Structure prediction request, 858 residues.
Amino acid sequence: MNKDLNMKVNVLPVLTYNFLRLNDSTILASDIRIDSFESPKLNVVPAGVTVESSVDFEKAGEVFRAYKERIQVTTGVPGDPNGDTSYRDKDQVLRTGMGIDVDEFMTEVSAKADIYTVDEGVKVSEPLVLHYDLKDGDGNVSAQVIHAKKNSEITLIMDYNSDKDASGFLGISTRILAEEGAKVNIVKSQLLGNGFLHFDDMGGACFEKGAINVIAVELGAYKAWNGCYINLSEKEADFNSNIAYLSRDDHELDINYVADHRGKKTNALMQFKGVLMGEAKKTLRFTIDFKNGSSGSAGDEQEDTLLLSDNVVNRTMPVILCQEEDVDGRHGATIGQLGEDLLFYMQTRGIDEEEAKRIMIKARLESVARMIPDPELMQKVIYFIQGIV
Amino acid sequence: MSENKQVVNEIDHSMYDFKDVENEQDFYRLKEGLSKETVLKVSEEKNDPDWMRDFRLKCLDIYNEIKMPDWGPSIEGLDMDRISSYVRHKSDMKGKWEDVPEDIKNTFERLGIPQAERESLAGVGAQYDSELVYHNVKDEVAAQGVIYTDLESALRSEYADMIKEHFMKLVPPTDHKFAALHGAVWSGGSFVYVPKGVKVEIPLQSYFRLNAAGAGQFEHTLIIVDEGADLHFIEGCSAPKYNVANLHAGCVELFVGKNARLRYSTIENWSKNMYNLNTKRAVVEENGIMEWVSGSFGSHTSYLYPMTILKGDNSKMEFTGITFAGKGQNLDTGAKVVHQGKKTSSVISTKSISKDGGIGTYRSSVVIQNSAKKAKASVSCDSLMLDSISRADTIPAMDIRTNDADVGHEAKIGRISDEAVFYLMSRGISEEDAKAMIVSGFANPVSKELPLEYAVEMNNLIKLEMSGH
Prediction:
């Protein structure tokens, strides 16, 4: 199948000045070859986990539809105060970071989802690993649904890789439901070739004391879009994310993360560590949204970006929305090049500027890479980073 | 918070909410709505030069083409067909206070303007509805060559070319719909020129009063601070409350020369039926300094983001703002800055308080262009929620296009800390007083930037009356 893409994605939860062109992003591409609609299969399915393969994307949404009232996907109407855009995604069975255009695309191309269900109380000790080994010219569109029942725990690692000069297309949708006390760890490593176009959309809902943790390392592809929308719908739900990215040459990276606090005493932490080189362009939107009823909640969004070339474009929108009195919302950003004091310190220890830069890039990216719970993949990511720097 | 909490009262607007009985025969009022005829009529009233009349008509075309903003607070309640663009008293502008018509004089007396002029200002302009009714500058300031006059007079003076060169060049009518509207029907406002090297020791002030119901005020303020000069300009605004919407779409253009400094302070207290869609912009040349102090307390709906273009190398900007959104208010405020010159620096520091269902939004943009090597930008915005029916949003944006820049950003949203209240109470201070102290302390970074008498006015405005239950 060859497909033209024209999708509006990563729409900010509330709009701002149009002149900044930050309110959303467009995926525009023509004649994209897609030859696979399936996720990689597991060699071994652990006890307590059921995998339902190749379910129609739309039908896989039944998992969330069954909990419609608790997930509360529908909010807002056009014209809501402050340019609220939630009405746009009101028909999504589960809101995702990139939004409804991805769902519609998945349905249109008849993408298939694999549904991983973890039985109540089952804690899967070994991570499940999906290897996307893509070759030059490959096109894959696939989806996953992870349904962790009460007090269960699962770790899913998704490893996207190809030769470094390979071209192709990879479109992913990952939707997660963490029931009461359940914990879902998602690890994504993106080491795609320099000619890849890539999008990776995530959405999740956490019930009482449920938790979703995301670790992601974004290092490849010439154009990449990431979205993640986590609905902390019940009390003491938790969302923790650690993202490292490196964008270089003329690559473009566009990210939209949202923590939607609805339950009481919910927590979200979003940490981004990035490096921009060459003529790379990066846009990061991240939002903490304290809805009515989320009293006692805390949200923290942090960004640390190292700019290593004078031709990079670094755009950031750190949004905090708040309709609740008893909350603690924080944002912090540090953006710039290596400080002169730090370089001087390094030089006094015999480390020249180039070496100091290499050390700092590695330190930044590897701090997240080392969180990858699969030693082999972790080493692969670290080698990839070393190869670049 | 417990049920037994203190009450932080909303801002007391009653001191501004008196209506003067306007005798209809004393006032000239254009019929409501906006059309080519309306614009031509305003132009005729102002005795515009030809270029200005043509400019107004061009702006009307642009207004009709540009869509309403799709971001920010709703302005659906604003119906231009029910807004009169021009209302004026039939008397002319006066240079002596005693010559100002009695009814208007009473209004400004009650607002304390003449007293302030006597005690602490170098000059005063007072606008009532669409026209300036009084303009005066102290002799010693005029002797320094400082021009402080209404814009219409300046358009017919030796400064006409200077105005033509600068008018709506910084805020072009294509900027947004209400900038175009302003260009079409602007009336009143001040022109200030501070010559090279002149330092005006005490502030100038313009006060804008919109007394008519269902009317718009579209004053234009144009300030040019020449090389090495220094000025503090204060702007105050108020209006009585009516049940119909009023509109304020003013425009402020500030030109800060090489090594010059301009401080622009605003205490905005429009009534709660006001749509405040104001545009303010400054361009700063080499080593120049632009300082904004902005207090937003009134209005039903506000869109207000003073913008600074740091064009010259080493130019600097500081923005200190506070917004208090109470019942029925949706105040969308913040600042914008564009760094163009080398070693430019900007510091934005804002405080926002939301109460009784009020919506306070901090919105900003920091743009660092590739040319702005060694630029530094720092943004800090704190929001305080005083209850759970209100809303406080923080929507900042950063666009950085050089690696040779240093940008920091911090935002916090929260409530009055229980620990801080407990600490103060453990020192013998009552809960009510403790909370009042904390809220006053929260607002303090802004009030300390104002001249004493305006800080007092701001504190009066906030009137954080505490009472226990």
About this structure: Confidence is low (pLDDT under 50) at residues 1-8, 463-469 of chain B. The longest helix of chain B spans residues 431-447.
